[in-house]
Amino acid sequence: MSTPTELVDYDEALASYDPAMGLEVHVELNTATKMFCGCPAVFGAAPNTQTCPTCLGLPGSMPAVNARAVESAIRIGLALNCEIAEWCRFARKNYFYPDMPKNFQTSQYDEPIAFDGWTDVEVVTADGTETFRVEIERAHMEEDTGKSLHVGGTTGRIHGADYSLVDYNRAGIPLIEIVTRPIVGAGDKAPAVARAYVAHLRDLIVGLGVSEARMDQGNLRADVNLSLSPAGSGTLGTRTETKNVNSFRSVERAARYEVSRQAAILRAGGSITQETRHWHEDTGVTTSGREKSDAEDYRYFPEPDLVPVAPSREWVEELRATLPEPPRARRSRLQQEWGFSDLEMRDTVGAGALGLVEETVACGASPQSARKWWLSELARRANETGTDLAALPIGPVDVARIQALVDEGKINDKLARQVFDGVLAGEGTPDEVVASRGLAVVSDDGALGEAVDRAIEANPDVAAKIRDGKVAAAGALIGAVMKEMRGQADAGRVRELIVERLS
Amino acid sequence: MSAPLIERSAAALADALASGETTSVELTQAFLRRIAAVDGAVHAFLHVDAEGALAAARASDERRAAGTPASALDGVPVAVKDVLATEGLPTTCGSRILEGWRPPYDATVVARLKAAGLPILGKTNMDEFAMGSSTEHSAYGPTHNPWDLDRIPGGSGGGSAAAVAAFEAPLAIGTDTGGSIRQPGAVTGTVGVKPTYGGVSRYGLVAMANSLDQAGPVTRTVLDAALLHEVIGGHDPLDSTSIDQPLPAVVDAARAGAEVDLAGLRVGIVAELGGEGYQPGVQQRFDEAVELLVEAGAEVVQVSCPSFVHALAAYYLVMPSEASSNLARFDAMRYGLRVLPEGVDSPSAEDVMRATRDAGFGDEVKRRIILGTYALSSGYYDAYYGSAQQVRTLISRDFAAAFERADVLVSPTSPTTAFKLGEKLDDPLAMYLNDVATIPANLAGVPGISVPAGLAAEDDLPVGFQVLAPATADDRLYRVGAALEALLEQQWGGPLLSADQLALETEEHA
Amino acid sequence: MPDISREQVRHLADLARIELDDAELDHLAPQLSVILESVASISEVATDDVPPTSHPLPVTNVFREDVVRPSLTPEQALSGAPAVEEQRFAVPRILGDEQ
Fold first, then answer.
1. Residues A384 and A420: beta-carbon distance below 8 Å
2. In this structure, are residues B177 and B146 in contact, taking their beta carbons and an 8 Å threshold?
3. How far is it, in rounded angstroms, from Cα A314 to Cα B231?
4. C98 has a pLDDT exceeding 60
5. Do A47 and C72 touch (CB under 8 A)?
6. What is chain B's pLDDT, residue by residue, as a tens digit (510 residues)?
7. Is B387 a residue of the active site?
8. How far apart are the C-alpha atoms of A442 and A444, rounded to whole Å?
9. CB A8 within 8 A of CB A263
């Protein structure tokens, strides 16, 4: 666990070294059942209630491939412009680990179902939007492991624990692993490209409907491989593989950290150890995990219990026809539909809010209001808590409902912020929060009328001006009414009542 | 005129049940008594389930009484090799590492036996994880050959073969990865069939080598084997390598074969499976059997399968490679043995795995795991595992060429008769040679049967005659096997095996 | 093909998670050498154009519909476990990293 205390400043590091990055993303599919057995593949069940002889690796059990998982793998491959294998096999990756029931993972080795693809990601920079092409090496099918709970020790982490408790509900859930070719030439934008790629992949996968793709829930897991080479050398340096990166923001931060850390080592004349590292969200550093040595020999061989997968070209074309429109086409369509300016659109995409805004609009909100809430109010809160927008415990349905409450005059923008607080705090739906916090604005003419009358009485000068036709002066009276009503008044209705009385 | 129940064939017992001459309970009790009497000497069983078998027998009798038998064999008891998962019944695979494990599920073969109404007498002994040719590698002690208790019953399925040979069960299930059904059949004078790969579900069969393993019938007659084959065979969605087409009509083929008309049948003698290295008495009985087939109308052709000489080498790379991976799951975490290393304070999961696998696996299993780990390791994969898989292709091509010229291929099942217990225990290579004639069929996935061909002149021990057929043409095995059986029994004046001829007779009365 | 050394056997046993003592190593290494010697010729048999056979039958595309089947009960799932706590498999402390 050697962490250099001194890091090289990021910009300084980039002056001397070129970064090369590779991203390995695991996508947990949202199939009804596991990859190789009929156990449910849903989260949150009591431990070891979703297991069978196959996913427990009991002696004698055998795997049977989930057709829907293969279909999803092919669709992901096609969406990433990959070739789809005409013939490929599953392979066993042999290594021992207590949460892996068979002590081998059924995966794919040198015959992935999809390979040789690419996808274009857009990075927002000071000079505008730049497009980077990320080449996809492969996408393959495999199965997830069980989950361990570490007991004893002080941290609840694996190190120092006395023993562990294993739940195999997650074992066997289908995963698609998507591996990029080394991303070179991005220079100082490399970490931003990494983030944009993972966010782009998430949108693409959500668009395909094959996964919930939530990083905070582990549906989407990214490993960031990064190496540095002397600037302009055109070589590839020794890389590290950083795991446990569970938000878009962390992808970027982890990459930046590794650049600074590796540059410090290289500059001091040291060399980089090829190893797995772990990202720590709280402290913003990576620490060393196990070293990848020759001792790690996975002894891959074709899985003899499964027959080859040979997708017919007809099937592949059928699946291609089911793909949603490509992201870029979708963006220009949405921009037109929503009437967003280029800047508004760029900010929306940059914040990873495109899909969220789209869904919010689909729930009835106007595009501008949807954009406003996601990019101002909610983006600020996501930033404060260090999570992604999509990971906030509030969804498009809630945002649309809050806007509807505003539109209906039940609350105003100021109260809406309190409703957001309530929903984010888990107090229930927007309507429940309005009720429980007593946030509804007063639009009852009786109560409002009395307050208006009192305000006119207390401010005769202002009232006179309005009578003379200076309607703009009404603001001062509205302010007085709002103050009296402690903000819980419909400002529009107050204005109407004032004008009614003074005209 | 009617023989004692335990000495009758399963087909005859089914008739006796159908006619009401006996009941399944009576039958099951008769076999349980026989087991009690002779299994102390034979040690064919690792676990006898008297209670479960009798309960199944009572249910069978009720079905018979109601006129709704579940199958032709409803009520006829069966013994099951301990490598098949049986819900609630111990399943050890002959290994310490699984001592006391009771699976929460049934293998498909077991489920089909139960659905067809066959009471399961118990689980039979075997070489640990089916690794061996003598049943001496069982962690629970060897099985003895009923013909001579100082000799091996073959392996790995020595328990199933010995149980049937000693009249402890009319039927048994075996599994055959390199000959583990056929070779025990040969050395115990019983019938053993390895179906086409994919013909019988492997779901619940604790895998040694997934691409070679196949479960099949162990019986005393060819017709019984066909009847049992029909119960356990056929497509299973839980086994992705299972063949999705109807089973060939094996029972019809066995009945037709017994008519002994082999006119037009082309029998291929494989040059590489005989001659040098084969015991003279074995070769002699084989040659005589071929003569009988010719007399019955068959035409003999000589075929050569040059790649077969590499079969043993390919087998001893493919099998341990797959086994090394299959056996990784026995790690003391989820089931089976857990051994804490001595003198280690607060051992890690790793430490416990290592200690358990050292204590729980026998020498032969360790040898094969290490061999397989080696053959799959980076730098050696192409030379070993990869080359072995190529040799499989060559062997399949040899079979294809031979089956162009012959309908079935024949050879001695095993090069020798039963050897003495202990004789080859410290010489793995000599042990492996027992399977030289049976292995090619596993590598290519084709079906094979071993039928008793008489006793070798030099030692009066049983000799097996092997018939091989193309993939999915299992019916040919039964046609030829039943014909040979009929011809030989005419010659012998009855079956090769009879209870009063066995060395056990005194034991039973003792 | 080289003989398999004692050290190699130790390394392989390590990969296979089997604790072998010196006596076992002495016993197994020469046996493995003999077996390997007997299979060594295999790499010279087939030429490069011979495809490998990994499955004896030429079948492809065997799939299962994505339909839920009953799972085991937790009692069944845990029935063989050497140790159980909180309806989970209790295992000794795990070395290495979080998966």
1. no
2. no
3. 39
4. no
5. no
6. 578 999 999 999 999 999 999 999 999 999 999 999 999 999 999 999 999 999 999 999 999 999 999 999 999 999 999 999 999 999 999 999 999 999 999 999 999 999 999 999 999 999 999 999 999 999 999 999 999 999 999 999 999 999 999 999 999 999 999 999 999 999 999 999 999 999 999 999 999 999 999 999 999 999 999 999 999 999 999 999 999 999 999 999 999 999 999 999 999 999 999 988 999 999 999 999 999 999 999 999 999 999 999 999 999 999 999 999 999 999 999 999 999 999 998 899 999 999 999 999 999 999 999 999 999 998 899 999 999 999 999 999 999 999 999 999 999 999 999 999 999 988 888 889 999 999 999 999 999 999 999 999 999 999 999 999 999 999 999 999 999 999 999 999 999 998 877 767 544 443
7. no
8. 5
9. yes
Mean pLDDT of chain A: 90
Query: Judging by DSSP bridges, how do beta strands B299-303 and B266-270 pair with one another?
Result: parallel
Q: In sequence order, what are the residues at sequence separation of 6 or more whose Cβ sits closer than 8 angstroms to the Cβ of residue B257?
A: B222, B478, B479, B480, B481, B482, B483, B485, B486
Contact B333/C91, CB-based, under 8 Å?
A: yes
Q: Say yes or no for a CB contact (<8 Å) between C72 and A70.
A: no
Q: What is the pLDDT of residue A424?
A: 92
> Between B and C, how many residue pairs show a Cβ–Cβ distance under 8 A?
178
Q: Is A75 on the interface with B (CB under 8 A)?
A: no
- C-beta atoms surrounding A98 within 10 Å: 27
Considering only the C-alpha atoms of chain A, give the largest distance between any 2 of them, rounded to a whole number of Å: 93
Is there a contact between B75 and B17 (Cβ–Cβ < 8 Å)?
yes
Give chain A's domains with CATH numbers: 1-22+225-300 (no CATH), 33-178+197-205 (no CATH), 326-437 (no CATH), 445-502 (1.10.10)
The rounded distance, in Å, linking the Cα atoms of A502 and A464 is 8
CA B444 from centre of chain: 17
- The phi, psi pair for B409, rounded to 5°, reads -110, 145
Q: Is B156 a catalytic residue?
A: yes
In this prediction, residue B505 carries a pLDDT of 54
Q: d(Cα B207, Cα B321) in Å, to the nearest integer? A: 12
Q: Choosing from B95, B134, B156, B160, which is the catalytic residue?
A: B156
* Subunits with 3+ C-beta pairs closer than 8 A to B: A, C
Give the position of tokens 């000071």: A126
Instruction: Note the helical H segments in A54-189.
Output: 67-79
- Express each pLDDT in A194-232 by its tens digit: 999 999 999 899 989 999 998 888 899 999 999 999 998
Measured CA to CA, the distance from residue A203 to residue A357 in angstroms comes to: 12
Query: Which candidate from A33, A39, A98 shows the least CB-CB separation from C91?
Result: A98
pLDDT in tens, A318-368: 999 999 987 778 888 999 999 999 889 988 987 889 989 999 999 999 999
Question: For position B429, what pLDDT does the model report?
Answer: 87
Task: Give the residue carrying structure tokens 């969200």.
Answer: A281
B324 is known as an active-site residue: no
Cα separation of A497 and A503, whole Å? 10
- Asked if the Cβ–Cβ distance from A297 to B377 is below 8 Å, we say yes
φ/ψ of B451, rounded to 5, equals -120, 140
Whether A157 has its CB under 8 Å from any CB of chain C: the answer is: yes
Other C-beta atoms closer than 10 Å to the C-beta of B255 total 17
Residue A345 CA to residue A123 CA, distance in Å, equals: 13
Cα–Cα distance measured from residue A149 to residue A167, given in angstroms and rounded to the nearest whole number: 8
Q: Which contiguous run of DSSP H or E holds residue B51?
A: helix B50-65
Tell me the domains of chain B and their CATH numbers: 5-308+392-500 (3.90.1300.10)
What number is the ipTM of this complex?
A: 0.96
pLDDT in tens, A440-493: 776 667 778 888 888 888 888 888 888 888 878 888 888 888 888 777 777 788
| β-bridge pairing A163-167 and C88-92 | antiparallel
